[in-house]
Design brief:
- This protein is an alpha+beta fold.
- It has one domain: Pnp Oxidase, Chain A.
- The protein has four helices and eight strands.
- Strands 1, 2, 3, 4, 5, 6, 7 and 8 form an eight-stranded antiparallel β-sheet that branches.
Length: 172
Amino acid sequence: MDRYDEPALEPVRNARRDTDPATPAVRERIRVLLAQQPFAVLCTQGDQQPYGSVIAFAAGDDLRSMAFCTPVATRKYRLLSQCERVALVVDSRCQHLDDMMEVEALTATGRVVELERGPEYERWAVRLAARHPQLEAFIAAPSSALFRIDIVRYLHVSRFQEVRQWLPNLES
């Protein structure tokens, strides 16, 4: 299956695409939001049910991928093993409790890959531990698995209804 193909998602109505002249601004808003928010909700599916799990994550510098860690003996791990399609939701609601129009939300969709121990695993483990030092032992534990999400699409929502789409893998 093509890395960029997301047949389950139709084009987003009223979303400005990555060809919009505001793309650099949208990309920067995405970068800032991901840097400000240490946690996200990972959305998985399985057993004919959607599931949401709070995770600590780290994003790559180019925003094309992210990583997180989870124990192997969990429903989350089992669901990730069964279905590679995931979504990650990040938002700023805690910073704007009194003004909903200031809240930004981001949904990143993509495919998840479990990383085997080796150089890439180590790079992501170091990045994740640098962002979340309290998780260093958890990340290194043999009972934990490290996953990378290859991002296909970002949907950035601001002012409660302004939706912009950025497809990071269409850029060189």
